[in-house]
Design brief:
By secondary structure, this protein is mostly beta strands. About 0% of the residues lie in helices and about 40% in strands. The protein contains one helix and 22 strands. It has one helix spanning about 270-275, and strands spanning about 10, 20-25, 50, 55, 60, 70-90, 100-105, 120-125, 130-135, 140-150, 155, 160-165, 180, 190, 215, 225-245, 255-260, 280-285, 295, 305-315, 320, 320-330. The termini are far apart.
Length: about 325
């Protein structure tokens, strides 16, 4: 079975925090289809029932008594190229679907209609109860919507859609400031020293963090050194303003931070950690405070266009969000 580690450098395009939602479903009698997209792991609530039956943390349809199968049409919060799926049936034991498949389409505007051409991107796969099912996808096309088919009925706890956000940068004005690190603009967290309490990719999510769990937090460091995270920008650009937000981190925020940056050409994501050791300083060390946004502009060094940054925190702790505001670098 493939490990989720294979997908860690990609974001979950189906995260509800990005705006993902189901726009149509054949049946979700037992459990609301939109629970599929919650960022937290599915939970089991012993002895909890509602008017329709046992409360389940996921999407669950009725037992089908006629020909056919159930499906849900999903609008991704951000269009993207899909690298892999995790079909998670956690806590569904005697009520999971035996198999599932996924179709996709790209709608330049609006939602799919009867004329939309769907493409199958995950052929029918077998499912087991209370399990994660990870499947890598080799397809470079971008998609806006998915159709998640379960055969014939049953329950799925979560659908994770790992990929790279798509944005038509040719339409972006070089004079307009944009958050080059935002997950919605294709920013990706590639590697970090530690993510014991909170995932590194959280710092690129839209909006402010909802709690400490909605940020990146490292374990308490008991050895010399400091923690760090490397971020690939959605597009090369010149950074003019940096926001480091420690919202919700009060007794566990970093004492200070600095940022290194580089324009990286060639190489692979897996090689980025070693290369980052020698990147130039973009933001010299800055003192941080608990539970607040820190904005830096005058302190930023002029390095020209960059593609990657490394946020260093000293010595450890939690950061809720990182914003890198700047202007894209147009190709000559």
């Amino acid at each position: 079975m493939m490990s989720t580690q294979n997908f860690d450098k990609y974001i979950n395009l189906a995260d509800a925090r990005l705006g993902t939602k189901a726009i149509a479903v054949t049946d979700d009698w037992f459990a609301d289809v939109n629970r599929l997209f919650q960022p937290d792991a599915a939970v089991w609530k012993e002895g909890v029932f509602d008017d329709n039956g046992k409360w389940m943390d996921g999407w669950e349809s009725r037992r089908k008594r006629f020909e056919g199968y159930d499906s849900a049409v999903i609008r991704l919060g951000v269009p993207g190229t899909i690298k892999g799926f995790d079909i998670d049936t956690s806590h569904f034991t005697g009520n999971f679907p035996p198999s599932a498949s996924i179709d996709a389409c790209f709608c330049a505007e609006g939602d799919p209609n009867e004329d939309t051409q769907w493409q199958e991107i995950l052929t029918s796969v077998e499912l087991q109860g209370n399990s994660h099912h990870l499947h890598a996808i080799q397809d470079d096309r971008a998609w806006t919507h998915l159709r998640f088919n379960i055969y014939p009925d049953g329950g799925v706890a979560r659908l994770r859609v790992y990929g790279v956000p798509y944005r038509d940068w040719s339409a972006q004005s070089a004079s307009e400031q944009v958050d080059l690190a935002s997950a919605l603009n294709g920013g990706r967290a590639l590697a970090c020293s530690d993510e014991h309490f909170g995932r590194m990719s959280n710092i690129l999510n839209p909006g402010r963090g909802i709690n400490m769990g909605d940020g990146w937090e490292t374990a308490r460091r008991r050895t010399p050194g400091n923690d760090w995270v490397i971020v690939a920008l959605g597009h090369p650009g010149e950074i003019e303003q940096i926001v480091v937000d420690t919202l919700h981190f009060k007794g566990n925020y970093p004492d200070s931070c600095s940022i290194q940056a580089a324009y990286v050409e060639g190489g692979t994501d897996s090689q980025i950690e070693a290369r980052s050791l020698y990147w130039r300083e973009l933001l010299p060390s800055q003192k941080l405070e608990m539970h607040q946004e820190h904005s830096f502009a005058a302190q930023i060094k002029d390095l020209g266009p960059v593609t990657h940054v490394r946020l260093n925190i000293f010595p450890d702790g939690g950061v809720s969000r990182l914003r890198l505001l700047g202007r894209i670098a147009k190709k000559a």
